[in-house]
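Order emerges. For instance:

***
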Amino acid sequence: MLQVSEHFASQCSPVIGLADDTCGSVTRADIAFLTPSQLNDLFSPGGLFADMDGWFLHQIEMNACGVKRYAFYDWIMANADRTVFRAAVDPGMKVVGGAPMMRPFILAKQEDVINQDYWKVVGGAATGSYTINHPEAAVGTTTQGPLTTVTGGTRVIRVNNRHNIPLDPNWFRQRDVLYLFNKAGNGVTTQGNWRVIAAAVDDALTYIDVLVASENAGSNAPFDATPIKGVIIPGINNVNDYEKFCQNLPNILNQKRVPFWLQTSRWSRCIDSEYEVVYGKLISSNAAFREFYAIDEAKRNKQDETKRMRDEINAFLFQKAISANQTMALWENLEAINTVAGDVIDVNTSGKLIARRANFIGVKEQLRVCDRVIDLQNNPLNLLEFLDLNYDIARYRKTAGRKVTDIDWWMNTTMRSYFHTAMMQYYKDMYLDQARFIVEINKMSEELGVVYDSYMVKRPGGIRINIISDDFFDDYFDEFDAQSMGHVGNLILNLDIGKPPNGSIYLAQIASNRRAYTTAQIQELAKIDKTYLCVMENPTFRQTLTSETRTVVVECGKLSAWLDGAALTIPVTSSKSAPYSNLY
């Protein structure tokens, strides 16, 4: 049996667990880091612990770096399954991780936590009408620009960032998936998934042209096939462990608004020993460098991990099938993943078929298939119909044999305040002046730090409705609102997140992989080239690679609901003559 104590110290246990007072409610969850003894009990039986060893090691590093926690992310991870799905994998199948590759770029003194996470589309063109030319055309025309090739993609989109961070094409790395949101003429919310093929910045550093390929053929959900405007949020890439993929992601230096690039690598980091020597001397001897330019490895890791957590939430919610071939009947037509051939050495293992490339399917797409995604099309939420939906959810969960005392809804802070106003009107309409109520608002969950309000209503009777806000939903709405499409970013989500049997939506972590290399060590070089037998020291590089294999499981869509496109206004409390089906 593997001993957790061999890997981790108790004060740094990286995995969070929970005990629910009631099924599926964050407001009554007791969340804490697991102790080494609990980790042993959970992960050691059957040797399954070793499958997640790489992920655990990464988490302990990030915990030591003091990474900011996001309540919604912690709620997802606290309910992640790490045993059932791994145990169900066919023993004859080699599990290969597809982890996001994160590379740092250092930039400015103040870090806005959402600066690099939301981008606006300012133009677009078909690849056939795009001309490679310098100097580039003005922003918005997208008929010519800095890309050196437009092959392998279906569209070119021109993007910018409204937070004025310096533009770098590495914000859009090859194989990254982008979620592009827009609104149709009738107010319908559209979401398209696009894979990055290439990106380039214009000479004046005023925009980035991104060559993208569509990943929308596997979904019937509405999307903008010819995007020239909208909002982009990034997801994670789809890269197998057997493929070559090392691209730096820029970081933001939060010490000064002056660009200062430091190159490293993957959900990984590459460190040059000579750089560490020079960097160390500058830190110790140069006060100005220390104050305005220095950012140590722990802080870089912290920035990378903070962004990775937000990207993980995006993928958990919005990911789609990679193509129309991602079905049981056609999966063998998916893109092949083959082993890599080295640039210098061929060990006769290159070109071997390892797997077929597929995306895990996010929560929204799985709920959409179950008709649990409702677009309000910029109309005010109807509170009475909303309460009917809560009644249906409570009935479904009870039918599934669940204990139901609470129903949680996640939304942005402003919508939560408007909801409270509507509830006061609801109580007045339902009970007139015959009753008095004490309603608690702005309550705080000590474990996760989320703010929520709780309400009891006539229907569903005996069920407490919790309206919860979190920074993720505020940031999401603000970016869409800045582009005059706030209702598209007004998410109202009831997600039955929890490990079975206490929930029906969860992230299943199947395996992780981690490799750490130190190259150009003098002892190894001497074995290959006798010249190095006469050398005592040589610069080295340290490279760490981490991956994770996972899927998103929605066991029963009826137990949850996803509301899109509600107008950011006070929900109406009047009944309507039309059938109650669209929530407005």
